[in-house]
Design brief:
alpha/beta; seven-stranded mixed sheet; five-stranded antiparallel sheet; globular
């Protein structure tokens, strides 16, 4: 093994111990929820047609609500991505002529057309106004948020936990709670984009009306084949479920002809797999910072999502980094990713994801918009050992 990696692992001993402690607490929480809901083999059986009385689906709702500390939940393979889950939640909570306030800066690229698109069925097309409160030095500007809430009187306040394509730290649960308190004082509903943040702390932002995420990220444990979740208050979920299917049907239908086992087993594995990803992110951050690159999180930081950002300040170095990650993937290692005009993004994007589940970002992967300062957003790793091997390959590619 490369000496830089060995040294970094020694330096991170205390950080790794903290991450493993969080994983243990989260594992107990998940196990307790499985035991409480009496999960059995019958919950894994597929259904067809309308899916009436689908016990696997309905129990998965209850399981997620218990794990995330909420009153209710929607969990479904019919939700195609995190963006889809967020769109369902936004259209469920908002009504024409109401206001959405984005409290943590401009939302992630794929939500741009969902909110601001022209003539495509966006929120703007339904006369929903959107107000954005910029971050202040990469963190929430609580005074500005408070002032805008009082001035604009939004119906929904949206919070993005992870960094998206910004070079800023992910938000902690405590930071999110501070924004929720400001919103609740003015009777606003709150939606949290929880993508990449699940199980990185011992608690989730359960005080929100809706917590939203993707099953091919942290909570799917690397084996859920598709899907998304929305956990929240009974009131919020009752509004959202009408947009998930139709207002007359809600959560009462929705079959799955596949096997529910992977969704249950993925959730059970999620605390451990998330810890593997966090340890990998910290290792990359430690090594690349020692090499003089600007990274987030900083090696000494607590980490509130699974992402490590590395500024290369060089387009070709960024592309080579992504190609190297692809080359050490268990699937499609022979492929060579190139920047392309990916649907939903404003810039060309390069994505490396040699994953068992297509596009899974809890598996070892990285992606980047092709724009200065040419930052790679690296995430995932089902095993820390795979992360170590990938980092060794990156060092070799850099000639180190």
């Amino acid at each position: 093994m490369h000496k830089l990696i060995e040294q970094a692992i020694n330096n991170l001993a205390d950080s790794f111990k903290r991450v493993e402690g969080i994983a243990l607490d989260n594992q107990k929480k998940v196990l307790d929820a499985f035991i409480k809901n009496r999960i059995a083999l019958r919950h894994f059986a597929p259904t067809s047609g309308y899916g009436y009385d689908d016990v696997g689906r309905d129990t998965l709702y209850k399981l997620y609500a218990d794990v995330f500390g909420t009153e209710s939940a929607i969990v479904s393979p019919m939700i195609t991505s995190g963006t889809h889950a967020l769109t369902i939640a936004l259209f469920g909570l908002l009504r024409p002529n109401q206001t959405l306030l984005c409290a943590t800066g401009k939302p992630y690229d794929t939500l741009n057309d969902v909110i601001f698109g022209d003539g495509i069925g966006s929120l703007k097309d339904f006369n929903v106004n959107c107000v954005i409160v910029p971050l202040k030095h990469g963190t929430p500007d609580y005074e500005a948020i408070k002032a805008k809430i009082q001035e604009e009187k939004p119906s929904v306040v949206a919070i993005q936990r992870s960094r998206g394509y910004d070079m800023r730290p992910a938000l902690s649960v405590n930071q999110i709670r501070e924004i929720i308190k400001l919103a609740k004082r003015e009777n606003c509903m709150v939606m949290v984009d929880n993508c990449y943040g699940e199980f990185t702390e011992t608690t989730e932002p359960s005080e929100a009306d809706a917590i939203v995420g993707s099953l091919i990220k942290n909570p799917g444990g690397g084996i859920a084949p598709t899907g998304g979740y929305i956990c929240g208050t009974a009131r919020a979920i009752s509004q959202i479920e009408g947009r998930f299917t139709s207002p007359s049907i809600g959560r009462e239908v929705g079959s799955y002809a596949g096997d529910y086992r992977l969704f249950y087993q993925g959730l059970f594995l999620a605390p451990h797999v998330t810890a593997q990803s966090i340890k990998t992110a910290l290792l990359f951050s430690e090594v690349f910072s020692k090499l003089g690159y600007d990274t987030l999180p900083k090696p000494s930081d607590n980490i509130d999502d699974i992402i490590c950002s590395v500024n290369f300040n060089d387009e070709q170095k960024l592309i080579e980094f992504c190609k190297t990650i692809q080359s050490v993937s268990p699937v499609d290692s022979f492929a060579s990713p190139e920047p392309w005009d990916m649907p939903g993004y404003n810039d060309k994007v390069i994505m490396a994801a040699g994953a068992f589940v297509q596009g899974s970002s809890i598996e070892l992967s990285c992606d980047a918009p092709i724009r200065p300062p040419y930052t790679a957003y690296f995430q995932g790793g089902l095993t820390f050992e795979h992360g170590m091997l990938a980092l060794e390959a990156c060092l070799q590619a850099l000639g180190i």
